[in-house]
TrEMBL record, chain A:
UniProt superkingdom: Eukaryota
Gene Ontology molecular function terms on file: C-X-C chemokine receptor activity
Gene label: cxcr1
Organism for this UniProt entry: Danio rerio (Zebrafish)
Gene3D superfamilies named among the record's database cross-references: Rhodopsin 7-helix transmembrane proteins
Stated name of the protein: C-X-C chemokine receptor type 1
Topology with respect to the bilayer: Multi-pass membrane protein
Automatic annotation (TrEMBL), chain B:
Superkingdom to which the source organism belongs: Eukaryota
Family: Belongs to the intercrine alpha (chemokine CxC) family.
CDD domains documented for this protein: Chemokine_CXC (cd00273)
Protein name: C-X-C motif chemokine 19 precursor
Protein's cellular compartments: Secreted
Predominant subcellular localization, coarse grouping: secreted
Biological source species: Danio rerio
Function description: Ligand for cxcr3.2. Chemotactic for macrophages.
Domain named Chemokine interleukin-8-like: residues: 30-91
Single GO MF descriptor: chemokine activity
UniProt GO BP: defense response; immune response
Listed Pfam families: IL8
Annotated signal sequence range: 1-20
Any one Gene Ontology cellular component term annotated for this protein: extracellular space
Length: 364, 101
């Protein structure tokens, strides 16, 4: 039973009320059968084991994502003079994922103890999540457009110019991501007495306009953070793939494999979240009839799919390691060079170490 | 592929464990009303034991009135019906009278 001090919990004698309002009514022959659909949905509480499991999950992702993305950054950065435009985009994608991974320890503590980090940290963590949400897919869009320009429009010869453009594009993406993420400042730390009885970090819209604001921010996420970028990506890649199949250029086809893997991974991680959020929005609008069971299922689905999205920040390094042949070669090359340099320093010999020839791109 | 398999297992276990529970998490926290359907019929006096009034807020635009029945069940009342409005006024009046004591 609810013990919320803010709610009016009255165990009073209603005899006087019924006498005043219904004194001429005889209820003795009236059998009241409750409509089970009017039973309130029970608030959901998390078992300790589940809390701990998710905390471990977040720590695990953190431990996998940080070294993985650092390695990716190292491989790209060590090849700075020969960076391609796609390398610049992938480097920025790595930055976004690393940034997201760095806030996972907050989630690990939050899931067990609630939000204990204060209001400023609440807003910043929410901002980082939102920025990662937008920038990840926008960088993928940049790559798809770049591939289209190179393969379909044959702009390979202007590589230096494209790399400059990619730098500017990345700056624009970060700015746009920040602007689109400003609604995340609605998140604040507050004590929730209604259901969870602990401090939480969540969106807190003004009462009278909460539904409108929530709907607006969700539509923005769906359209600008997913649907529109998806249309652009699919358009570019469908044309690009058709062209590649026609020209039979093996190296470019192999490069496309890495990019396609990255895009597919992104879609696998984030599409379920959009689907469950859309379903939740439909339920909130009361467009369809539903019961507590369905609503609880949607709540669980939203939580699970959001975590699937968080998983994305450690997926790309794994993909590069397994799908990206050039990445593996480049990485091993760097390890080898570092080994050679160490031996060189130790022996104090003056002989020069042989350097293998540079390859055009670390990834593609 | 061992790493991916491990990730799948970890995530699968997490999904299984979360099947019966959910926790608010940053921007994903999904506040909402607790009442889906409202009861408008008059509850006979012998069936009514207590009334809980949940104030409106960002989580729920409307005030929610929950009646505790003598059978132990709880149902949501429609705060817009005439008799429930009277009931709320009655409760508020009693509350004020108690505060004066």
């Amino acid at each position: 039973m609810m013990t919320d001090p803010n709610s009016s919990n009255h165990l009073v004698d209603f005899h006087e009320f019924y006498y005043e309002e219904f004194n001429d009514t005889d209820f003795s022959n009236f059998t009241f059968v409750p409509d089970e659909k009017t039973i309130p949905c029970s608030s959901i509480t998390m078992a300790s084991a589940v809390n701990i499991s998710f905390s471990v999950f977040y720590v695990f992702i953190f431990l996998l994502a940080i070294p993985g993305n650092v390695i990716v950054g190292w491989v790209i950065g060590s090849n700075r003079r020969l960076l391609s435009a796609s390398d610049v985009y992938l480097f920025n994608l790595m930055l976004a994922d690393t940034l997201l991974a760095l806030i996972l320890p907050f989630s690990a503590v939050n899931v067990i103890h609630g939000w204990v980090f204060g209001n400023v940290a609440c807003k910043l963590v929410s901002l980082v999540k939102e920025v990662n949400f937008y920038t990840s897919i926008l960088f993928l869009v940049c790559i798809s457009v770049d591939r289209y320009m190179v393969i379909v429009r044959a702009m390979e010869s202007q590589k230096a110019q494209r790399r400059l453009c990619s730098g500017v594009a990345c700056g624009l993406v970060w700015v746009l991501g920040l602007v689109l993420s400003l609604p995340s400042f609605y998140n604040e730390a507050f004590f929730d007495k209604r259901m969870f009885n602990q401090t939480i970090c969540a969106e807190r819209f003004e009462t009278d306009h909460a539904d409108e604001w929530r709907l607006a921010t969700r539509i923005m996420r769906h359209v600008l953070g997913f649907a529109l970028p998806l249309v652009v990506m699919l358009s570019c890649y469908s044309v690009t793939v058709v062209r590649l199949l026609r020209t039979r250029c093996f190296q470019k086809q192999r490069a496309m494999k890495v990019i396609v893997a990255v895009v597919v991974a992104f879609l696998v991680c984030w599409t379920p979240f959009h689907v469950s959020t859309i379903i939740d929005t439909i339920l909130r609008a009361k467009v369809v009839q539903f019961g507590c069971t369905m609503r609880t299922s949607v709540e669980v689905a939203m939580f699970a799919t959001q975590n699937l999205g968080l998983l994305h920040c450690c997926v790309n390094p794994v993909l590069y390691a397994f799908v990206g042949e050039k990445f593996r070669r480049r990485f091993l090359q760097l390890l080898h060079r570092k080994g050679v340099l160490e031996r060189f320093s130790l022996s104090k010999s003056s002989k020069s170490s042989s350097l293998t020839s540079e390859v055009p791109s670390s990834f593609l | 592929m061992n790493v991916l398999l491990m990730l799948s297992v970890v995530f699968g276990v997490s999904i299984t464990l979360v099947a019966g529970a959910v926790q608010p998490l940053g921007a994903g926290y999904n506040s909402r009303c607790v009442c889906l359907k409202l009861e408008s019929r008059v509850i006979p006096q012998d069936n009514l034991r207590r009334v809980v009034i949940l104030p409106r807020g960002p989580h729920c635009k409307t005030t929610e009135v929950i009646a505790g029945l003598t059978s132990g069940e709880r149902i949501c009342l429609n705060p817009r019906t005439h008799w429930v409005k009277k009931l709320i006024m009655f409760i508020e009046k009693k509350k004020q009278e108690n505060n004066k004591l």
